[in-house]
Amino acid sequence: MSSGTSLKTKTTAPISDPNKRKRERTDTSEKVELKDATCCFCAQTPAALNVKLPVLGRKKRADMPYCLQCYYTSSAVRQGEQNVSILNKQEQERQLPAMQTMFSKCFLELQRDISKESIDAFSKRPKNHDPLAALLGTGISKMKKRPPPLKAGNHDDGGFLRNVDIPERLKKTQQQQLLARSEERQLARIEQTGTKNSNIESRNNDNLSVIAPINRYAISSSSTLSNRRRKGSGKSIWNLAMDPTSSKNDKNTVSHITATQEEDTMGVTCSSCGNKDVKSFGNITSRNGDVRKGEIWGTDRDSTVVTRYQCNNCGRTWNEEE
Fold first, then answer.
1. Which among 12, 93, 129, 202 is least buried, having the fewest CB atoms inside 10 angstroms?
2. Which residues lie in Polar residues bias regions (predicted)?
């Protein structure tokens, strides 16, 4: 291309969408059809309003034509203002006065009925014929029948206890039971006295005289005296053993101990003073008193039996092997 040649821009017309044209034609045709349509509810009166009602399974609402009377007396009145539009202005202005007069008549009739019912509610008319009586008595519970008044009995009976008359047949049965019980008690007493007499006769077969009845209180007192615990002397066991004025059993034990000591000290005399009054301290198995420690813990480990003595005259102590 040369520099002298000028560039020419080619302008193209906008491309028209055939589907869009079809939609516009259908929308305008639908508006024309809705404007001339009748009410979808009563199918008689020409439509004045266009109400968009929800459809199941679709997001978009459907346009439904309504007249004023069917709109205000059906569930279509619950739709919002954004879903209601005027379809035919002329029909809306023509139907509006009739609706206003109808609403005014209904309001006046309702006001008259309410005033009449309110007056009748406070009159002496029975509640069964009053339709609003249910509203006034909803919170009131039904009154139960009052219990009969209680009659107090005698003061000696203890409160409200009353003297009940027993029937004659029950009185007879009670008397028979009392008689049977008294007879059983008499028989038991006779058997008890017979067993006592037989026991007394068996004990005293040699004595043929009549035995006087035994006093039970005397038997119980004698048995309690024999079983009663004896009172102690109040001294300790050591004092009783060392006391020479104790009982005979204690003296016998002391004499037995001294006899055994005398047997142990027979033929033993003190080497220092020559006295035979010697006391024995019993047998021991080692000479711990007169030997050195080296002999105990050394090689000498014989367990010899040694008797320890003490002289009562000079006080000398020594050990003697058996």
1. 12
2. 1-14
Which secondary-structure segment (H or E) carries 272?
none
Q: Rounded CA gap, 311 and 13, in Å?
A: 163
Dihedral sign from CA coordinates of 198, 199, 204, 205:
positive
Burial of 92 (0-12, 13-18, 19+ CB in 10 A): middle
CB hemisphere CA count around 196 (13 angstroms):
12
- With H, G, I as helix, E, B as strand and everything else as coil, classify residue 56: coil
% of the chain surpassing 90 pLDDT: 17
Measured between its terminal Cα atoms, the distance across the chain in Å is: 163
Residues 6 or more apart whose CB falls under 8 angstroms from that of 50 comprise 34, 63, 64, 65, 66, 84, 85, 86, 87
pTM, entire model: 0.31
3-state secondary structure 118-172: HHHHCCCCCHHHCCCHHHHCCCCCCCCCCCCCCCCCCHHHCCCCCCCCCCHHHHH
Residues 255 and 322 in one domain: no
Range of the domain at 92: 22-116
Count the domains in the chain.
Answer: 3
Helices (H) and strands (E) in the chain, counts: 9, 6
Q: Which residue has the higher pLDDT, 280 or 97?
A: 97
**Whole-angstrom Cα distance, residue 144 to residue 157?**
32
Cβ neighbours of 47 (radius 10 Å): 25
> For residues 18 and 118, what is the distance between their CA atoms, to the nearest angstrom?
69
Provide the pLDDT confidence category of residue 52 given band limits of 50, 70 and 90: very high
- Same structural domain, 26 and 109: yes
